[in-house]
Amino acid sequence: MGSRILVFLVVALIQVCTTPAVTNNDDFNALKALKDIWENVPPSWVGSDPCGSRWDGILCTNSRVTSITLASMGLKGTLSGDISNLSELQILDLSYNPELSGPLPPAIGDLKKLTSLILVSCRFSGPIPDTIGSLPQLTYLDMSNNSFEATDFPPWFSTLQSLTTLVMETTQLQGQIPSDFFSLSNLQTVDARNNQLNGTLDIGTSTINQLSLIDLRKNKISGFTNRPGVEKVGVILVDNPVCQETGVTERYCSVPQTESSYSTPLNNCVASLCFANQISSPNCKCAFPYTGLLKFRAPSFSNLENNTYYTVLEKSLMNSFKLHQLPVDSVNLSHPRKDSSTYLVLNLQVFPFGQDRFNRTGISSIGFVLSNQTFKPPSLFGPFFFIGDAYLNFAGEVTGSKKSSNTGVIIGAVAGGSVLLLLLLGAGLYAHRQKKRAEKATEQNNPFAQWESNMSIGGVPQLKGARNFSFEELRKYSNNFSETNDIGSGGYGNVYRGVLPTGELIAIKRAQQGSMQGGLEFKTEIELLSRVHHKNVVSLLGFCFDRGEQMLVYEFVPNGSLMESLSGKTGIRLDWVRRLKVALGAARGLAYLHELANPPIIHRDIKSSNILLDERLNAKVADFGLSKPMGDSEKGHLTHVTTQVKGTMGYMDPEYYMTQQLTEKSDVYSFGVVMLELLTGKRPIEKGKYVVREVKTALDRAKYLYNLGELLDSSIGLDTTLKGLDKFVDVALKCVEENGSDRPTMGEVVKEIENILQLAGLNPNADSASTSASYDDASKGNAKHPYIFSKDAFDYSGGFPVAKVEPL
Questions:
Q1: Burial bucket for residue 665 (CB in 10 Å: 0-12, 13-18, 19+)
Q2: Per UniProt, where does ATP bind (predicted)?
C-alpha cells in the first residue's frame, strides 16, 4: 500500500513539475502579433496561454517561449519586428513556407539567445540584416532559397564565433569570401552554392579546425589556393571558372552522377489496398505520410545501386525519430539519384504511428529534426538538408462525422456482416480497378488533375494542345539524360537533346529534381506557349509532370542563341544582311505576342540569349518563364500592370524599374538593346560600359556611319555597304527612349525593319539562309553544343532568373 502511495506522489510531482507555467505576457503579445499578420496558423493557436495550452510549434521553458518550429505549415505573410520581444527564443525554424515573404526585420539581432535560425525555401526579400552578426550564440544559420538582394559576402559572418554550419544556397551572395572566415574555430560546414561569389578561394593554413565541407558549386570562383592541410576538407567547386579551364582534373572539380530505382522493401507483409489518396507504408498500413526530399551534399560512395546504404540510412532515421519520441511508424526511401547539382537525392515518406495521419505537432517536430540537422545521418552520407512538402491531412482537422461514430459503424458492420463484407470487397476491387483505369485515362488527358493548389505556383494550368510525356518516355528519348545530350543549363535546371520515335529532335528543359525552384516558370511557360503558334516563337511540344519531375519539351533549335553567334561561340558569322533578318524575325515574334496572341503577352526578359536561331538562321523568341499575360484592360500604350520588377541587367527598361509599372513598351526597350547588340557585337554591359549610353554618346548623324564606326562589330562586314544602317540605328534609339510613351510599338518596329530590307533590295519574307552551313566561320570552328541556354548575368531566387538591376 505504501509503495502505491509513493508511486502516486511521484507521478503527481512529475505532473506538477511538467505543467507549463502561464506564458510570459511579452512573449504572448509577440506571438499574437505574428498570429495577426500570418495566415494559416495552426488551429491550436487560440487562447492567451501558448505555453499552457501547447500551441503547435511553440515550445516553452517555464513561462518563456524558447522554440518556434513551424516547418511546412503553409504560413502566409511577413515576419515583423515583434519577433524581437521573444527574448528567450533559442530556435526559429520557418522553413518550407513559400508564402512567407517581405524583408527580414533587423530586430532579429535582438534575439541574443538564438542558436538556430532556419528560413529555408521561403520568399523573404530585401537585404540580409547585418544585425544577425551580433548574435553571440548562433551556431546554425540556413537562409537558402529566398529572394534576398544581391550582396557581398557579409563581413559579419566572420564574427559568428559559435557558428558550426552556414548554408546560403541561392541567396545572391557575391564578391570574395575572406580567408579569415574559415578560421572560425567551430565551423564545420559551408554551403553557398548557386551564387555569384568570385575571386580566389583561400581557406587558410593547415590549422583548420573542424571544417569538413565547403560547397561552392555554381559560382564565379577563378582560383583556389591549395595550402597544406586543405585535403582534409571536402571542397566542391564544380561549375566555377577554376574548374572550367581546359585540362583541370582536380578532385574538387568533379562529382559522379547516377541514379537507382531503389525503394524501401515491405516488412514481411502484403501491401494494403488504400483509398482516398492514402499510401501503403513499408509495414503495409494505409496512411497519409509526411513527404519531402533528403539531399546529401557529399556522400562518400558513388555506387547508388548498393541497397545496403539505404537500409543503414532507414535504420538511422527511425532511431532518431524514436530517440525524440516522435509518432513515426516507418519510413520509405526511394529513387536515389544525383540531381543537376550532383547532390544525392532521395524521396522520403514518413508514416504516422497508431493512426493514419499526423497532427500539427508531429509534423513540426519531424520537420525540425530534419531541417535543424538534429538527425545525424551515417557518416558515409555526409552533410544533408531536407526539403519538406506541405502537409494537407492533419489529424483532427478533417470534416465529416465524428471518429467514434465512424468506428461504431465499422465495428457493427464487421460483426454483423462478414459475408456481405467479402462480397462488397470483391465488388470494391472490381470498382477500384475500373476507377484506376478511368483515372489513368483522365490523367493522360489532364495530367494536372492532382495539381495541388498550395504549390506556391498557382492553380491548375489552362492548356491548349500540349502533349503530356511520361518520365520514362523522356528518359528514353534523351538516352537516360546522358551527358552527351546535356546541351546547357541555367537557374531552372538542365536542357537535354532528345529524339522522338518519329526522328524529330526535341529539347527537354528539366527542372532541378524535386525542387520547387522554377515552378512558376514551369506553369507560366506551359500556359503561355501552349497558346502561341508563330514561326518566330519557339514551339512547345509538350511537358512532363511525373515522378515529381517538371520538364518542358520544345522544338529543337539547332543553332543556339543569338548571343552565342555574336560572341563567335557557334562558329556562325552574321553579316549585316543576316543581322537585319534576325532582327526582323525576332521583332515579328514579339509583335505577335503583343498584338495577336490570346491573351496578349509581355515577355519581360527579351535579350540575345533568349532569341534562338534555327537551321536557316530564322530567329525564334524563347524562354517565357518571366512572361505575363495581359487582360483586355491592360492593353495599350498608356495602361500598365504594377508588378515586382524582374528581368536581366542591361536589358531592363529603366522606366519599368523605377515605377514598377509594366507595359509592352518594356519589351520594346529590351528589343532596342538587342538591336544595338546586333550593331556592336557587345554585351549590353561590358567592362562597365553600357551600350545604350556608348551609342548615344558617339552618335553624330552628320558623319559617316553616324560616327559609330569604332563601335560596330567587325564581323558585320565593314568592307561592304551597310545599306539602311542609319535607319536601323534610328529605330533602335527610338526603342530605348527613356519614356515608354515615346517608343514605337513592336508592330511599328516590324514595318520599319521591313522597309530597311526593301530599301536594300532584299525580300523581307525570305528565310535568312538556305542552310546555316554556308555561314559557318571555319576559322572559329563550331561549338561543342550549338544549342545552349547560357549562364549569363543572372541572379537566381524562387526558381526564376532575376537580376539585381541598378538605375541606368
A1: buried
A2: 509
User: 478: left (phi > 0), else alpha (psi -120 to 50), else beta?
Assistant: alpha
pLDDT at 28 over 60: yes
**Coil vs helix vs strand at 541:** strand
Which pLDDT band holds residue 211 (cuts at 50, 70, 90)?
confident
Structure confidence at residue 773 (pLDDT): 52
- Compute CA distances 760 → 618, 706, 728, 764, whole Å: 19, 18, 12, 10
723 annotated binding-site participant: no
C-alpha distances in Å from residue 483, one per residue of 340, 486, 487, 766: 11, 5, 8, 37
Provide mean pLDDT across the span 199-212: 74
| Strand 123-126 to 99-103 pairing | parallel
Residue ranges per domain, the chain? 18-243, 279-397, 467-555, 562-802
Residues near 456 by Cβ (< 8 Å), separated by ≥ 6? 98, 99, 123, 516, 519, 520
The three grid cell numbers given for residue 777, joined into one nine-digit string:
566561320
Closest CA to 602 of 694, 524, 657: 524
Q: What are phi and psi of 524, to 5 degrees?
A: -60, -45
What integer is the mean pLDDT of 68-72?
A: 85
Looking at the DSSP bridge assignments, the partners of residue 493 are 511
Largest Cα–Cα separation, the chain: 114
Residue range 487-508: mean pLDDT, rounded: 83
Cβ proximity of 84 and 110 under 8 Å: yes
Taking residues 690-708, report their average pLDDT: 92
* Residue of 104, 101, 100 lying closest to 80 (CA atoms): 104
Beta bridge partners of 39: 76
- Is the pLDDT at 64 greater than 90? The verdict is yes
Question: Which residue is it, cell 561549375?
Answer: 239
The predicted pLDDT at position 558 comes to 87
C-alpha cell belonging to residue 434: 475500373
Secondary structure element (H or E) that encloses residue 476, with its range: helix 471-477
Burial class (CB in 10 A: 0-12, 13-18, 19+), 360: buried
Q: Pick the catalytic residue: 93, 605, 653, 792?
A: 605
Weakest mean pLDDT among 128-142, 245-259, 387-401: 245-259
**Least-confidence region, from 98-112, 174-188, 242-256, 319-333:** 242-256
Q: Which residues contact 748 (CB under 8 A, 6 or more apart)?
A: none
The answer to whether residues 134 and 113 touch, using CB atoms and an 8 Å cutoff, is: no
Among this protein's residues, is 546 annotated catalytic?
Answer: no
What residues contact 7, with CB distance under 8 A and at least 6 apart? none
Q: Which CATH architecture has domain 562-802?
A: Orthogonal Bundle (1.10)
The proportion of the chain whose per-residue pLDDT surpasses 90, expressed as a percent, equals 32
CATH (one of 3.40.50.300, 3.40.50.510, 3.20.20.70, 3.80.10.10) for 18-243: 3.80.10.10
- For position 453, what pLDDT does the model report? 42
Bridge partners of 117, per DSSP, are 92, 141
The letter for the amino acid at 292 is G
Class of domain 279-397: alpha beta
Distance CA(42)–CA(204), nearest Å, equals 47
Residue 24 Cα distances to 36, 86, 675, angstroms:
18, 10, 64
CB 99 within 8 A of CB 353: no
Considering the entire predicted model, what is its pTM? 0.45
- Collapsing DSSP states into helix, strand and coil, what is residue 101? strand
Chain centroid offset of residue 298 CA? 21
Q: Which CATH number fits domain 467-555: 3.30.200.20, 3.40.50.720, 3.30.450.20, 2.60.40.420?
A: 3.30.200.20
**Residues near 180 by Cβ (< 8 Å), separated by ≥ 6?**
158, 204
Q: How many residues does the chain have?
A: 808
335: left (phi over 0), alpha (psi -120 to 50) or beta: left
* CA dist., res. 753 & res. 731, Å (int): 8
